[in-house]
Write a structure and sequence with these properties.
Layout: E1 9-13, E2 16-21, E3 24-30, H1 32-41, E4 47-51, H2 63-72, E5 77-80, H3 86-95, E6 99-102, H4 104-108, H5 111-120, E7 125-127, E8 130-133, E9 141-145, E10 150-155
Parallel strand pairs: 1-4, 4-5, 5-6, 6-7
Antiparallel strand pairs: 1-2, 2-3, 8-9, 9-10
Length: about 160
Amino acid sequence: MAVVKIMPCLDMKDGRVVKGVQFIDLRDAGDPVVNAKFYEEEGADELAILDITATVEGRKTRLKWVRDVLEIITIPLTVGGGISSLDDMAQLINLGVAKVSVNTAAVRRPELIREASERFGKDRIVVAIDGRNNKEMPSGFEVVIRGGTAGTGIDAMA
């Protein structure tokens, strides 16, 4: 029998949860702590929090947001956004994060994922692949990085 887990994702910008489509037309969806607690109370098995503008803004994940959420939930938390090194990952794991999610850095330097898996265990590393429609790609979808702002020329299915 297949195991189904519910894992909501809180996309974060400027300290608030936001919702949009393909990283545009973002609208405020509330406080991350309130949202995280709500999802846990509603039965979510895990939670993700993604600092969606960290890479574009050239910074790391806002650790305060992570700490605030970790203080009020007991379910596993996955964190992504601005993670580009083993040190970034170690800092988050040391805070109590169950998993780290990597996108741009995984595309730019794929060996980072092998290194991270060896250091932290493969169950603690998530590779997030964002895609957008691109008829030039065999699958019709291109991998994008930097919060959906940069195409890579890589077919999403490849």
